[in-house]
Amino acid sequence: MAEAEAQETVSPEESTDESEEEESEEEPKLKYERLSNGVTEILQKDAASCMTVHDKFLALGTHYGKVYLLDVQGNITQKFDVSPVKINQISLDESGEHLGVCSEDGKVQVFGLYTGEEFHETFDCPIKIIAVHPHFVRSSCKQFVTGGKKLLLFERSWMSRWKSSVLHEGEGNIRSVKWRGHLIAWANNMGVKIFDITSKQRITNVPRDDISLRPDMYPCSLCWKDSVTLIIGWGTSVKICSVKERHASEMRDLPSRYVEIVSQFETEFYISGLAPLCDQLVVLSYVKEVSEKTEREYCARPRLDIIQPLSEACEEISSDALTVRGFQENECRDYHLEYSEGESLFYIVSPRDVVVAKERDQDDHIDWLLEKKKYEEALMAAEISQKNIKRHKILDIGLAYINHLVEKGEYDIAARKCQKILGKNAALWEYEVYKFKEIGQLKAISPYLPRGDPVLKPLIYEMILHEFLESDYEGFATLVREWPGDLYNNSVIVQAVREHLKKDSQNRTLLQTLAELYTYDKNYGNALEIYLTLRHKDVFQLIHKHNLFSSIKDKIVLLMDFDSEKAVDMLLDNEDKISIKKVVEELEDRPELQHVYLHKLFKRDHHKGQRYHEKQISLYAEYDRPNLLPFLRDSTHCPLEKALEICHQRNFVEETVYLLSRMGNSRSALKMIMEELHDVDKAIEFAKEQDDAELWEDLISYSIDKPPFITGLLNNIGTHVDPILLIHRIKEGMEIPNLRDSLVKILQDYNLQILLREGCKKILVADSLSLLKKMHRTQMKGILVDEENICESCLAPILPSDAAKPFSMVVFHCRHMFHKECLPVPSMTSQAQFCNICSAKHRGPGSAILEMKK
Fold first, then answer.
1. How far is residue 88's CA from residue 93's CA, in Å, rounded to a whole number?
2. In terms of Cα–Cα distance, which of 782, 795, 796 is closest to 852?
3. What DSSP letter does each residue of 522-564 carry, written as one string?
4. Cα–Cα distance, 60 to 79 (Å, whole number)
5. How far apart (Å, rounded) are the C-alpha atoms in residues 283 and 303?
6. 844: alpha, beta or left? (left if phi > 0; alpha if psi -120 to 50)
7. Is pTM beyond 0.85 here?
8. Which SS3 state, helix, strand or coil, does residue 567 take?
9. What end-to-end distance do the CA atoms of the chain give, in Å?
10. 633-657 pLDDT tens trace
């Protein structure tokens, strides 16, 4: 059960020891504040007996017969001396312009606060209740009810006279009444009745459950939730009644309305007041507890509960014990619960105290979270409701959260939260950094420092870099890589690193970091030197990025030693910046690297390094023989005599064979293949490439006394040399391996050649016939002759302008046309005519296909 205490300080004699009770982790739903100012003055000399609430003001009645009008802060605005004895009830209409008062001595007054109209009457018995019509301000609604031993309805007639009528009597004193719209609900000793003022009918009677309780000590509490829902609290019982319209078919002599109890349940304590809160209920309870020492009952602090009604039970949402003045002497009838519908304000009235309960707002929620040290939830709540909170600032909550995390030793989380909480406030960032420095946790905040917007003072970044430099080289290197070089004074950090290198000159991490610092400082020469010393992979990127080619002309060997592939690619890609000549000169003392460079240059372009081809022969022979022969084949600038000399010296047979054949000495080349390599297949392949009959003859002569060579020749020369020439020269009795297979292959190759020839012949004949037929069809087609055609000899139109005149013309199959008289006369030996143009151009003669005469 949560505890609540008014914000005003409670005196020791009026309070109980709260330190013994455990604090609840459940957040209260309401907050409490003691109504002070004028109320404090009143209750020091008098005691509160009743109270009613309007949206604009409060009306308080006392035991000494006074009625005070108060503002919402408790300041007195008006005072009325109504009676010398206790005020039993005060009633206000909805407009707040008319006030009804009744007292223990039987006095009843109804008057306007701003008009002169009044009703005064003194009855011969105490009047316990009064209720004015909610719309009393209207002339048609000048009605009110009073209750003592009977319930009276007063109405003003058209003559401005008041007449009364008895609505109910005979069941004891009327002790509670509530008027809503056209319905009046009241409670007497027997139960609760509801009266319809429009139809002048009583529509229900709800009997009370526990008749053992004295109705004067445990009075009934009535509350209208809306115009048709009445909530009844009596003893420990709560009933929720709904007024419904009766169907016309059910009426007969019954009232037009009836009441249905929609919910009924028991509470733990005695009910002193009820009020609605949305779909929930606020219940003021009178509590009696038994003392463990004396085993006697005593009056405990009253409770204000928020409950969720169900059909036959209820669910407790929150429960607060209230420390009000003099609660030890109070009875159930001494407490009252009034509420303001417009603002959800609840007034707990007791003889010596008035406490206001309000729904907690977002500021109160944040207060509670901060009190419970739930800073992250408080920060989230503030961010979500930043437009509604008035007393809190997101930044203040965030700073409190950071301090809390630091106190708990959760430095990394605190540093991470700085990013979100401090945002772009540079001054706060610097303040927090110094705070982390004081507790020796600069490393914790370093990953989260802003690096762009905002930018802190250079001293902040230098301070953190020095911290890492003293204890963590790797962390220092990481920060230098991640932080932009303009955040701090680069020269200061460079000097600090150099001081540390004096103690550990070979530390790779420090050297690499120093190179990066030199790069930020645009001191690329020093950076490059360190990178080369460390053989760092970023050296080539550094050269390209900052165009350091002029700085590496004397460091080519170092670059090649580090990564020859990347170095060569870079040098070749930037020939305009570092010439081939310069590279070759620098590599003169390292021929193996020189070869790598020249080899890749040759692969890219066979002609660029032609001046070094002679040098490359020796380099290939020394370091890369597999690529020597391809080089000799592709190079057109290589001196063959020099190459032949080197290959002879090193006994490179294949290369020598190639050079001999290229120099035209094919017979020597073939001889070397047969004598040095003893490779008949290679010899045959060489002879095929040269396609020289003398070479074939030399090959046959060399092979005739070597059976394996003969087999190779028989298998391969069938398509180049007549095999009979070889077979006739084989000595009788010579044993030749696989001779039968070789002869079969020769025969098969011969048959294949015959078949190929016959197939080709058939295709040729078929194609010739097809083309002849096509030519014949083409020549048989007609040729259009019109006025646009001209004579190819005289260039005049082929057709005369006067169609009546006779004419004669010749048209050839090549589509050239002539006037007949423009053609030469055919010779006596051959009467055939040919196109002069096609004959002159050697296109082949064409005979005349058409001779036209008219």
1. 17
2. 782
3. T-HHHHHHHHHHHT-TTHHHHHHHHT-GGGSTT-HHHHHHH-H
4. 10
5. 8
6. left
7. no
8. helix
9. 135
10. 888 788 888 888 888 788 787 787 7
